[in-house]
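Example record

One chain of 170 residues, shown exactly as stored in the release files.
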Amino acid sequence: MLRAARYLLARHAHADITLKAVADRAGVSAPLILKYFGNKDALFARVMSFESDADALLDAPLEELGRHMVRHVVEGQTRRGADPVLRIVFAPVQGEQGETLRANFRAQVSERLARRLSGRDAGLRAELAVGTLLGLGVMYGIARGPHLRATPVDDIVDRYAPAVQAQLTP
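Predicted structure tokens for this chain:
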């Protein structure tokens, strides 16, 4: 249900999306969505939150965080076909829902990561690390780079994690 709502939100204005459209895309009934979320606003509040995604992305000691984050993004693509953090790439440029997604992303992912970092420029380093990860996710999951997708996950982690970790370390 969340995946269906995320898909629709990336392509349509919030006001134009019906529970029926979400239900049809998810292959469930609209009453089932109401049972789980209560109403459309509650469903989309959850869709626009990155809190649980950030929990998983940032769940490692700082000295291992670069490797963990890279592995998380690539395995999200290989196991689930998507990484929920990447939905920021599809945030609408205009409108309230795009601004809500961007604000949530900044607060729940970038700024949360920055609070874990010590030293100067923690905010900048957090944004650079997250930007580096988003680039990997875009190349792997959206552009579907054939060389990248043919490479074992451990090899990608070994090559890419140092670039992310370099931003995390003062």
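Notes: The longest helix spans residues 96-116.
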